Protein backbone atom coordinates (compact mmCIF):
# COMPACT_ATOMS: atom_id res chain seq x y z
CA UNK A 1 0.00 0.00 0.00
CA UNK A 2 1.24 3.46 -0.84
CA UNK A 3 -0.75 6.68 -1.04
CA UNK A 4 -0.48 10.40 -0.38
CA UNK A 5 -2.71 11.58 2.47
CA UNK A 6 -3.56 15.14 3.49
CA UNK A 7 -3.92 16.22 7.10
CA UNK A 8 -7.50 16.72 8.42
CA UNK A 9 -6.97 20.44 9.03
CA UNK A 10 -3.84 21.73 7.32
CA UNK A 11 -2.12 21.25 3.96
CA UNK A 12 0.49 18.93 5.47
CA UNK A 13 1.00 15.82 3.30
CA UNK A 14 2.12 12.32 4.30
CA UNK A 15 3.26 9.63 1.92
CA UNK A 16 1.93 6.53 3.66
CA UNK A 17 3.51 3.24 2.73
CA UNK A 18 3.57 -0.16 4.30
CA UNK A 19 5.96 -1.68 1.78
CA UNK A 20 9.34 -0.30 2.79
CA UNK A 21 9.77 -2.21 6.05
CA UNK A 22 11.35 -0.46 9.00
CA UNK A 23 14.17 1.81 7.92
CA UNK A 24 17.50 0.89 9.40
CA UNK A 25 19.51 3.97 10.43
CA UNK A 26 22.76 4.68 8.59
CA UNK A 27 25.26 1.92 9.22
CA UNK A 28 28.73 1.10 8.16
CA UNK A 29 28.75 -1.22 5.16
CA UNK A 30 31.73 -3.01 3.84
CA UNK A 31 32.60 -1.69 0.34
CA UNK A 32 31.95 -5.19 -0.99
CA UNK A 33 28.34 -4.99 0.23
CA UNK A 34 27.64 -1.34 -0.61
CA UNK A 35 25.26 -1.15 -3.60
CA UNK A 36 26.61 2.30 -4.52
CA UNK A 37 30.27 1.21 -4.74
CA UNK A 38 32.00 0.57 -8.09
CA UNK A 39 31.85 -3.13 -8.94
CA UNK A 40 28.41 -3.54 -7.33
CA UNK A 41 26.38 -1.87 -10.10
CA UNK A 42 24.26 -5.02 -10.46
CA UNK A 43 22.94 -4.52 -6.92
CA UNK A 44 20.87 -1.50 -8.02
CA UNK A 45 18.25 -1.12 -10.77
CA UNK A 46 19.94 -0.35 -14.15
CA UNK A 47 21.18 3.25 -14.36
CA UNK A 48 19.64 5.42 -17.05
CA UNK A 49 22.19 8.21 -16.71
CA UNK A 50 25.88 7.50 -16.09
CA UNK A 51 28.66 10.05 -16.53
CA UNK A 52 31.91 8.53 -17.71
CA UNK A 53 35.18 10.37 -18.25
CA UNK A 54 36.77 9.71 -21.63
CA UNK A 55 40.03 11.58 -21.90
CA UNK A 56 39.15 15.15 -21.00
CA UNK A 57 35.47 14.95 -21.86
CA UNK A 58 32.49 13.53 -20.02
CA UNK A 59 30.17 11.20 -21.88
CA UNK A 60 26.61 10.24 -20.89
CA UNK A 61 25.89 6.54 -21.00
CA UNK A 62 23.12 4.12 -19.95
CA UNK A 63 23.25 0.64 -18.44
CA UNK A 64 22.01 -1.64 -21.15
CA UNK A 65 20.40 -4.96 -20.27
CA UNK A 66 23.15 -7.12 -18.82
CA UNK A 67 25.89 -4.63 -19.69
CA UNK A 68 26.61 -2.27 -16.84
CA UNK A 69 28.69 0.87 -17.29
CA UNK A 70 31.81 0.83 -15.12
CA UNK A 71 34.43 3.50 -14.33
CA UNK A 72 31.72 6.09 -13.82
CA UNK A 73 31.99 9.54 -12.31
CA UNK A 74 28.30 9.98 -11.36
CA UNK A 75 25.54 7.37 -11.60
CA UNK A 76 21.73 7.93 -11.54
CA UNK A 77 19.16 5.12 -11.29
CA UNK A 78 15.66 4.48 -9.91
CA UNK A 79 15.56 3.83 -6.15
CA UNK A 80 15.16 0.14 -5.35
CA UNK A 81 12.68 0.98 -2.55
CA UNK A 82 10.85 4.02 -3.94
CA UNK A 83 8.44 6.10 -1.86
CA UNK A 84 6.47 7.00 -5.01
CA UNK A 85 6.16 4.88 -8.16
CA UNK A 86 4.74 5.25 -11.68
CA UNK A 87 2.62 2.17 -10.94
CA UNK A 88 1.09 3.35 -7.63
CA UNK A 89 -2.43 1.95 -7.21
CA UNK A 90 -5.35 4.33 -7.80
CA UNK A 91 -6.28 5.53 -4.35
CA UNK A 92 -8.66 8.43 -3.99
CA UNK A 93 -10.28 9.51 -0.75
CA UNK A 94 -12.50 12.45 0.18
CA UNK A 95 -12.45 14.77 3.19
CA UNK A 96 -11.71 14.05 6.02
CA UNK A 97 -9.78 11.08 4.67
CA UNK A 98 -8.34 12.82 1.64
CA UNK A 99 -5.91 10.68 -0.36
CA UNK A 100 -4.45 10.48 -3.84
CA UNK A 101 -2.16 7.96 -5.58
CA UNK A 102 1.54 8.22 -4.67
CA UNK A 103 2.40 8.43 -8.36
CA UNK A 104 5.86 9.47 -9.32
CA UNK A 105 9.53 8.70 -9.64
CA UNK A 106 12.23 8.27 -7.03
CA UNK A 107 15.85 8.43 -8.20
CA UNK A 108 19.24 8.03 -6.56
CA UNK A 109 22.28 9.95 -7.79
CA UNK A 110 25.53 8.50 -6.46
CA UNK A 111 27.74 11.54 -5.92
CA UNK A 112 31.16 9.91 -6.00
CA UNK A 113 32.69 6.54 -6.71
CA UNK A 114 34.59 6.84 -3.41
CA UNK A 115 32.61 5.31 -0.55
CA UNK A 116 34.47 7.19 2.18
CA UNK A 117 34.64 10.62 0.56
CA UNK A 118 32.36 12.90 2.58
CA UNK A 119 30.34 15.62 0.84
CA UNK A 120 32.60 18.15 2.56
CA UNK A 121 35.58 16.91 0.53
CA UNK A 122 33.99 16.34 -2.87
CA UNK A 123 35.94 18.67 -5.14
CA UNK A 124 34.56 21.54 -7.20
CA UNK A 125 34.86 19.71 -10.53
CA UNK A 126 32.95 16.71 -9.16
CA UNK A 127 30.24 18.99 -7.71
CA UNK A 128 29.80 20.42 -11.21
CA UNK A 129 29.34 16.89 -12.55
CA UNK A 130 26.80 16.10 -9.82
CA UNK A 131 24.80 19.30 -10.41
CA UNK A 132 24.78 18.77 -14.18
CA UNK A 133 23.48 15.21 -13.69
CA UNK A 134 20.76 16.45 -11.34
CA UNK A 135 19.71 19.13 -13.85
CA UNK A 136 19.52 16.53 -16.60
CA UNK A 137 17.42 14.13 -14.53
CA UNK A 138 15.14 16.85 -13.13
CA UNK A 139 14.48 18.18 -16.66
CA UNK A 140 13.52 14.70 -17.82
CA UNK A 141 11.28 14.11 -14.82
CA UNK A 142 9.31 17.32 -15.51
CA UNK A 143 8.51 15.91 -18.96
CA UNK A 144 6.83 12.86 -17.41
CA UNK A 145 3.07 12.58 -16.91
CA UNK A 146 1.60 13.48 -13.52
CA UNK A 147 4.70 15.23 -12.23
CA UNK A 148 3.94 18.59 -10.60
CA UNK A 149 7.05 19.05 -8.55
CA UNK A 150 10.54 17.56 -8.46
CA UNK A 151 12.54 17.84 -5.26
CA UNK A 152 16.26 17.11 -4.94
CA UNK A 153 17.75 16.51 -1.52
CA UNK A 154 20.60 14.96 0.42
CA UNK A 155 20.36 12.98 3.65
CA UNK A 156 23.89 12.56 4.87
CA UNK A 157 25.43 11.19 8.05
CA UNK A 158 24.16 10.70 11.55
CA UNK A 159 20.61 11.73 12.37
CA UNK A 160 19.81 12.78 8.79
CA UNK A 161 17.70 9.77 7.79
CA UNK A 162 20.15 8.12 5.36
CA UNK A 163 20.26 4.34 5.29
CA UNK A 164 23.37 4.05 3.10
CA UNK A 165 26.44 6.06 4.07
CA UNK A 166 27.93 6.24 0.56
CA UNK A 167 27.35 9.91 -0.50
CA UNK A 168 24.27 10.20 -2.70
CA UNK A 169 21.42 12.54 -3.58
CA UNK A 170 17.78 11.65 -4.01
CA UNK A 171 15.27 13.06 -6.49
CA UNK A 172 11.57 12.53 -5.77
CA UNK A 173 8.61 13.72 -7.83
CA UNK A 174 5.37 14.80 -6.19
CA UNK A 175 2.01 15.05 -7.97
CA UNK A 176 1.28 18.47 -6.39
CA UNK A 177 3.28 21.47 -5.14
CA UNK A 178 4.55 20.60 -1.61
CA UNK A 179 3.22 22.85 1.18
CA UNK A 180 6.49 24.61 2.09
CA UNK A 181 7.12 25.50 -1.57
CA UNK A 182 3.50 26.60 -1.96
CA UNK A 183 3.90 28.90 1.07
CA UNK A 184 7.07 30.46 -0.37
CA UNK A 185 5.47 30.82 -3.80
CA UNK A 186 2.38 32.57 -2.39
CA UNK A 187 4.56 35.05 -0.45
CA UNK A 188 6.67 35.80 -3.51
CA UNK A 189 3.62 36.16 -5.75
CA UNK A 190 1.78 38.47 -3.33
CA UNK A 191 4.82 40.70 -2.90
CA UNK A 192 5.41 40.84 -6.66
CA UNK A 193 1.76 41.75 -7.25
CA UNK A 194 1.42 44.29 -4.46
CA UNK A 195 4.88 45.84 -4.24
CA UNK A 196 6.52 44.80 -7.49
CA UNK A 197 9.52 43.31 -5.69
CA UNK A 198 10.69 39.78 -4.93
CA UNK A 199 10.84 39.41 -1.12
CA UNK A 200 13.73 36.97 -1.46
CA UNK A 201 15.74 39.57 -3.41
CA UNK A 202 15.02 41.97 -0.54
CA UNK A 203 16.26 39.42 2.01
CA UNK A 204 19.47 38.91 0.02
CA UNK A 205 20.03 42.68 -0.04
CA UNK A 206 19.48 42.98 3.70
CA UNK A 207 21.64 39.96 4.66
CA UNK A 208 24.53 40.89 2.32
CA UNK A 209 27.54 41.97 4.33
CA UNK A 210 25.54 41.70 7.57
CA UNK A 211 26.07 39.64 10.74
CA UNK A 212 24.43 36.51 9.29
CA UNK A 213 26.37 36.39 6.01
CA UNK A 214 28.65 33.35 5.82
CA UNK A 215 30.40 33.82 2.48
CA UNK A 216 29.75 35.41 -0.87
CA UNK A 217 31.05 34.26 -4.25
CA UNK A 218 30.64 35.85 -7.68
CA UNK A 219 27.01 34.69 -8.13
CA UNK A 220 25.93 33.30 -4.74
CA UNK A 221 25.56 34.27 -1.12
CA UNK A 222 25.37 31.92 1.89
CA UNK A 223 23.83 33.16 5.13
CA UNK A 224 22.33 31.84 8.36
CA UNK A 225 18.60 32.62 8.26
CA UNK A 226 17.19 35.11 10.81
CA UNK A 227 14.79 32.51 12.32
CA UNK A 228 16.83 29.32 11.92
CA UNK A 229 14.99 26.08 12.67
CA UNK A 230 18.28 24.24 13.27
CA UNK A 231 21.54 25.35 14.86
CA UNK A 232 24.07 26.24 12.13
CA UNK A 233 21.37 26.15 9.43
CA UNK A 234 22.36 28.02 6.29
CA UNK A 235 20.85 28.96 2.95
CA UNK A 236 22.54 29.50 -0.40
CA UNK A 237 20.86 31.95 -2.79
CA UNK A 238 21.74 33.16 -6.28
CA UNK A 239 22.30 36.92 -5.88
CA UNK A 240 20.34 37.80 -8.99
CA UNK A 241 16.67 36.89 -9.27
CA UNK A 242 16.54 33.44 -10.81
CA UNK A 243 13.57 31.06 -10.52
CA UNK A 244 15.04 27.67 -11.30
CA UNK A 245 18.24 25.72 -10.77
CA UNK A 246 17.78 24.41 -14.32
CA UNK A 247 18.64 27.86 -15.71
CA UNK A 248 22.27 28.04 -14.57
CA UNK A 249 25.01 28.90 -17.05
CA UNK A 250 28.23 26.86 -16.95
CA UNK A 251 29.92 29.71 -15.07
CA UNK A 252 27.16 29.79 -12.47
CA UNK A 253 27.27 26.00 -12.12
CA UNK A 254 31.00 26.15 -11.36
CA UNK A 255 30.54 29.01 -8.91
CA UNK A 256 27.72 27.13 -7.14
CA UNK A 257 30.05 24.11 -6.87
CA UNK A 258 32.67 26.35 -5.28
CA UNK A 259 30.05 27.67 -2.85
CA UNK A 260 28.84 24.16 -1.90
CA UNK A 261 32.38 22.86 -1.44
CA UNK A 262 33.36 25.87 0.70
CA UNK A 263 30.29 25.92 2.96
CA UNK A 264 30.02 22.14 3.46
CA UNK A 265 33.79 22.07 4.03
CA UNK A 266 33.35 24.88 6.57
CA UNK A 267 30.48 23.06 8.29
CA UNK A 268 32.61 19.90 8.64
CA UNK A 269 35.38 21.96 10.27
CA UNK A 270 33.01 23.64 12.74
CA UNK A 271 30.99 20.49 13.58
CA UNK A 272 33.18 17.50 12.64
CA UNK A 273 31.14 14.47 11.59
CA UNK A 274 27.76 16.22 11.79
CA UNK A 275 24.96 14.82 9.62
CA UNK A 276 22.90 17.20 7.50
CA UNK A 277 19.97 17.48 5.15
CA UNK A 278 20.30 19.66 2.07
CA UNK A 279 17.23 20.55 0.01
CA UNK A 280 16.93 22.39 -3.29
CA UNK A 281 13.97 24.79 -3.34
CA UNK A 282 13.41 25.48 -7.01
CA UNK A 283 10.28 26.67 -8.84
CA UNK A 284 8.12 24.08 -10.52
CA UNK A 285 8.75 23.90 -14.27
CA UNK A 286 5.01 23.54 -14.82
CA UNK A 287 3.97 26.74 -16.58
CA UNK A 288 0.89 27.39 -14.44
CA UNK A 289 2.69 27.31 -11.07
CA UNK A 290 3.76 30.37 -9.10
CA UNK A 291 7.52 30.96 -9.09
CA UNK A 292 10.03 31.47 -6.29
CA UNK A 293 13.62 32.72 -6.12
CA UNK A 294 15.37 29.35 -6.13
CA UNK A 295 17.82 28.42 -3.37
CA UNK A 296 19.35 25.66 -1.28
CA UNK A 297 18.62 25.07 2.43
CA UNK A 298 21.04 23.09 4.63
CA UNK A 299 19.93 21.75 8.02
CA UNK A 300 22.78 20.37 10.17
CA UNK A 301 21.47 17.66 12.49
CA UNK A 302 23.42 18.30 15.66
CA UNK A 303 20.26 17.84 17.74
CA UNK A 304 16.89 16.24 17.18
CA UNK A 305 13.60 18.05 16.99
CA UNK A 306 11.79 17.45 20.26
CA UNK A 307 8.30 17.99 21.67
CA UNK A 308 8.05 21.73 21.09
CA UNK A 309 9.23 21.51 17.50
CA UNK A 310 7.15 18.45 16.61
CA UNK A 311 4.07 19.53 18.49
CA UNK A 312 3.89 23.24 17.75
CA UNK A 313 6.16 24.19 14.84
CA UNK A 314 8.09 26.49 17.19
CA UNK A 315 11.81 25.79 16.91
CA UNK A 316 14.62 26.11 19.39
CA UNK A 317 17.97 26.94 17.80
CA UNK A 318 20.61 26.60 20.49
CA UNK A 319 23.21 28.61 18.59
CA UNK A 320 22.17 32.03 17.37
CA UNK A 321 22.31 32.49 13.58
CA UNK A 322 24.74 35.38 14.17
CA UNK A 323 27.17 33.22 16.19
CA UNK A 324 26.77 30.35 13.70
CA UNK A 325 27.50 32.70 10.78
CA UNK A 326 30.65 33.94 12.46
CA UNK A 327 32.01 30.41 12.98
CA UNK A 328 30.82 29.05 9.64
CA UNK A 329 32.03 32.21 7.90
CA UNK A 330 35.58 31.94 9.26
CA UNK A 331 35.80 28.23 8.39
CA UNK A 332 34.17 28.58 4.95
CA UNK A 333 36.34 31.58 4.01
CA UNK A 334 39.43 29.49 4.75
CA UNK A 335 38.11 26.67 2.53
CA UNK A 336 37.24 29.13 -0.23
CA UNK A 337 40.65 30.80 -0.05
CA UNK A 338 42.37 27.45 -0.40
CA UNK A 339 40.19 26.46 -3.34
CA UNK A 340 40.80 29.64 -5.30
CA UNK A 341 44.46 29.73 -4.34
CA UNK A 342 44.43 32.87 -2.18
CA UNK A 343 46.40 32.64 1.05
ZN1 LIG B 1 29.92 2.50 -1.19
ZN1 LIG C 1 14.27 37.31 -6.18
Q: Your description of this structure?
A:
The protein folds into 2 domains: 1-176, HIT family, subunit A; 179-343, HIT family, subunit A (2-Layer Sandwich), CATH 3.30.428.10. It is of the alpha+beta class and 343 residues long. Strand 10 and strand 11 form a beta hairpin. The chain has helices at 124-142, 179-195, 199-207, 250-270, 307-312, 321-340, and strands at 2-6, 13-17, 49-54, 57-61, 72-78, 99-101, 106-110, 149-156, 168-174, 213-216, 220-223, 234-238, 276-281, 295-300. It contains 6 helices and 14 strands. The strands form 2 sheets. The protein has an 11-stranded antiparallel β-sheet. It has a 3-stranded antiparallel β-sheet with strand order 2-1-6, with no helix packed on it. Helix 1 packs across helix 4 (250-270) and helix 4 (250-270) crosses helix 6. Helices cover 27% and strands 22% of the residues. The longest helix is centred in the last third of the chain and has 21 residues, at 250-270. One zinc ion binds at residues 198, 200-201, 241, 293.
List the helices and strands and how they pair.
Layout: E1 2-6, E2 13-17, E3 49-54, E4 57-61, E5 72-78, E6 99-101, E7 106-110, H1 124-142, E8 149-156, E9 168-174, H2 179-195, H3 199-207, E10 213-216, E11 220-223, E12 234-238, H4 250-270, E13 276-281, E14 295-300, H5 307-312, H6 321-340
Antiparallel strand pairs: 1-2, 1-6, 3-4, 3-5, 5-7, 7-9, 8-9, 8-13, 10-11, 11-12, 12-14, 13-14
Helix pairs in contact: 1-4, 4-6
The structure holds zinc ion (2 copies).
